[in-house]
Design brief:
The protein is α+β, with helices and mostly antiparallel strands and 279 residues long. The protein is built from nine helices and nine strands.
Length: 279
């Protein structure tokens, strides 16, 4: 896989000077206010800031983190997938696959995680479980085993549906689990590439829809999402100088600029070893 193609003190000062609880819409541990309906920031696995992290909201294509995880757990990357009629009828973001097209799992997975292609995602679900409905049952079973109590999946790709909900805290845990898979972690940091059918007759460009990849220093993942019901969503992970920050934004109208601001502020925090009062 191809290689990965600033943390100002001012941001931290603005965070520390934010209004205290009871002023406006902010609450303890919520220095960024209404940047999103729900958000969560973790530094080296420790939650540092949050706003309504257990609020159940539509997750849009952040759903595909679970799809990708299950594919990696249940299929070989070199397996060949035949695109079904149902997958070929998928709506929204898509590669443009036709029923009968044959692609490798690795190519469909790249299209799913980078380009958020719904036809590729649906084709993988069919391949793994025989139908999307059966695949969704496996998604929900995996969510239960992970303790994602606020999550219920209704489809493999993230389309709005009644009762289809997750939480920022659940999605953070899902992202951490998925990023623990080395193939998943390598794939979501690719900037762009190309996939194609096994017969070589069709090729499709794939570009990472996560605008932080290749632009924000240290960005390593993870997934974007958007639907009318969910709004703009993002799970972002970045690494610098041995520190790792994970950010979840649900329904964040200005997700890219706010994500950079929040990541910068997280990296500017003193490490536990250097914080005042540390032994």
């Amino acid at each position: 896989m191809p290689p990965l193609r600033a943390a100002p003190l001012l941001v931290l000062c603005l965070v520390l000077l934010a209004p205290a609880a009871g002023a406006g819409t902010q609450a303890p541990g919520d220095p960024f206010g209404a940047v999103a309906s729900s958000y969560l920031v973790k530094v080296d696995g420790r939650e540092v800031w949050a706003r309504a992290p257990d609020l159940r909201l539509p997750p849009a294509s952040l759903t595909k983190m679970m799809t990708g995880l299950l594919v990696l757990e249940r299929a070989g990357l070199g397996e060949t997938v035949t695109v079904s009629r149902a997958a070929g009828r998928e709506t929204g973001t898509r590669l443009g696959l036709a029923p009968g097209d044959r692609l490798l799992v690795v190519d469909l997975l790249a299209a799913t995680l980078l380009g958020s292609a719904n036809d590729a995602c649906h084709a993988l679900a069919d391949h793994i479980a025989g139908s999307e409905d059966r695949f969704v049952a496996r998604m929900n079973a995996r969510a239960r085993r992970m303790g994602l109590a606020g999550t219920r999946f209704a489809n493999a790709c993230g389309h709005d549906a009644p009762g289809f909900r997750s939480t920022a805290r659940d999605l953070a845990r899902l992202a951490e689990t998925a990023m623990g898979n080395p193939v998943f972690a390598r794939m979501v940091r690719i900037v762009r590439g190309e996939v194609g059918t096994v017969d070589g007759r069709k090729t499709f460009p794939v570009e990472n829809r996560n605008e932080l990849i290749g632009r924000y220093r240290g960005a390593v993942g993870v997934k974007t999402g958007f639907t009318e019901g969910a709004g703009k969503c993002l799970v972002a992970a970045a690494e610098r100088d041995g520190r790792r920050v994970l950010l979840v934004l649900l329904n964040a109208p200005d997700r890219w600029w706010k994500a950079e601001e929040m990541l910068d502020a997280a990296f500017a925090l003193p490490s536990p070893a250097t914080a005042p009062g540390a032994p």
